[in-house]
Amino acid sequence: MIRVLIADDHVLLAESLQFMLQQDCSMEVVGIAVDGKKALQMCEEFKPEVVLLDIKMLNNYDGLEAAGKIKRFWPQIKVIILTTVEERENVVAAVLKGVDGYILKDVTPGELALAIKCSVAGFCVLNGTVRDILREAIANLAQSGGKIKGIFKPEEIKIIELIADGRNNREIAEIMNYSEGTIKNKVSRMLEAIGAKDRTQLVLYAFKNSII
Predict the structure, then answer these.
(1) Do 9 and 108 sit in the same domain of this protein?
(2) What is the dihedral of CA 61, 150, 138, 52, to 10 degrees?
């Protein structure tokens, strides 16, 4: 019996997913967590074999942060991202955090059940769209001489460079012809992609990985 934990803040969807999975006699859903913090608590309590984790959750830890913590505290647990989010930076960030799969929510019930079983067997599971995104990121990595540049777009790297120069959001917005709010949102997405807490950690990450 494969013990599965579902972490998704859309309760109706999570309960539907629970019902669907439990039609397979080889699976048992041990619980539903509505945010990343609760997912960690339930991993400690129930010791699931697989966690299905959405990236975008409103409260406490988001999916990426929770994924990193789960793999650090319980490396034996298989973490599969199950989400509608297919941006390159999120896919790459999830892989860097050690997840065991990344699947979009348009997957069929049979495909999801197979993905769970494959992850337990030791395989990394990716659907077609995600596989293409990751392949492109790896190609970018190879072209950059092994530097982890594929996680950020060129304009995002420019923003990091300006932050490293001591520029604030207003100054960066003026230089790049964006609104200050747009720059703030872009910085927030970059922080989320690598699990950084603030702009300083973002710049340090960029230096450490030869992005700038």
Answers:
(1) yes
(2) 10
Tally the domains of the chain. Answer: 2
Measuring CA to CA, which residue among 55, 54, 6 is closest to residue 30?
6
In this structure, are residues 17 and 52 in contact, taking their beta carbons and an 8 Å threshold? yes
How many secondary structure helices (H) and strands (E) does the chain include? 10, 6
Q: What is the pLDDT of residues 70-117, one digit of tens each?
A: 998 999 999 999 999 887 777 877 887 889 999 999 899 999 999 999
Q: What's the pLDDT band for 60 if we cut at 50, 70, 90?
A: low
Residues 6 or more apart whose Cβ sits within 8 Å of residue 17: 6, 8, 52
DSSP strands (E only) in 113-203: 125-126
Categorize the per-residue pLDDT at 59 as very low, low, confident or very high, splitting at 50, 70 and 90. Answer: low
Q: Which of 135, 169, 198 is the last residue of a domain?
A: 135
Residues in contact with 129: Cβ distance below 8 Å, sequence separation at least 6, in sequence order: 86, 104
Per the CB < 8 A criterion, the answer to whether 202 and 190 are in contact is: yes
Can you tell me the distance from the alpha carbon of 8 to that of 168, in angstroms, rounded to the nearest whole number? 35
